[in-house]
Design brief:
The protein has 72 residues and is mostly helical. The chain is 68% helix and 0% strand. The longest helix has 18 residues. The chain is flat. The protein starts with 10 loop residues before the first helix and ends with a helix. The relative contact order is 0.12.
Length: 72
């Protein structure tokens, strides 16, 4: 089933996508897999009410640094 522009995704799908995004190093690949835009994933993440634990924040920063270093 194909989604049309403007259709809404369920809150459950959004939560699962954000959880996977936090654990994933390849956001572009995740967006392709879920067939949503990368921008939508970041917006969903920013809108979540659940605060990210300190450990996860540190882990996310380190993952981003690793990805950046691999690109060099």
């Amino acid at each position: 089933m194909e989604r049309r522009k403007g259709q809404r995704y369920s809150s459950q799908l959004r939560r699962q996508a954000v959880d996977r995004m936090n654990a994933c190093g390849n956001i572009v690949g995740l967006a392709r897999e879920l067939r949503v835009s990368r921008r939508a994933l970041y917006q969903w993440r920013d809108r979540t009410d659940r605060p990210i634990p300190r450990r996860e924040v540190r882990e996310l920063i380190l993952r981003k640094q690793i990805v950046k270093l691999k690109r060099c």
